[in-house]
Write a structure and sequence with these properties.
The protein is 39% helix and 18% strand. With 279 residues, it is of the alpha/beta class.
Length: 279
Amino acid sequence: MTSAWSSDIARFWREYVPPCRPSRFDLDVCSNVANIIREDKKRRPDILILGSTVEFRDWAFEEALRVTIVDSSPSFHSEISRDRRYKYSEEFFMECRWEELNVLAGYDLIVGDLVVGNVEPRDTDLFVRNLECALRPGGAFVTKSFFSSGREDIDLDQIFIEYEEKWSYLDPFPLLAYPLTLACMNHKTKMLKFRDMFASVEQAHARGLISENTFKRYSRFGWDGPGKIEFYVMLFSEWEDLLARHFSRFEKCLGRLCWQKDFPVYVAWKGDGKKYERC
């Protein structure tokens, strides 16, 4: 489904900001969940980080968690690890595809950013089931991704025009990430090809809808080169059905920035974990 997450992609990944990387709000949700688990278990929690996400790794070091990273690309892991704030933090690395994870009750907390979108559609049920199996009772899975309601009608030209007229002093990426994704995804397959997003931006620039500065910003992601990734955009209803099927319950947490309304952070609990009341 996706191109290999090579060391080349790490170079482009450094250009991304939230919502395609964890935000401060996302990390605060993780901290609150970790505190609940720590208070409940009376020990250091064991955390599994899906992927080599630097923000989660630095945060986990600050929280004094015991860290395991699971990533299918050692080359991407090695390159992006250079960006860590804490270069000598103790981590255990496991080379494995997430949907092939085979661990029984090994972790108190699992975190991952945009992870389900990088799983083959046919494997999403297996993926979520394996995560639930990997958690100890009272543990939690925290994540966010791009999801669709299935009812969106996006006028991308108007969105570009409005951005340039009202918000061009802000980074276009977080403001336009969600409508650009919905406008460019294939609504039959629910797949998004990043090169299709770049083509839409390129056409908007050619027609004078976006400025040279905006176009340059989008040219830094490698969507027309090594970053030709495909991403699965599930329906909100399908995702929540999956969580309800495999977890005891889940909560949705929303940040206060304007774009965060489209990116709820999900906290899914296994067993009788204490209720998270800060969403």
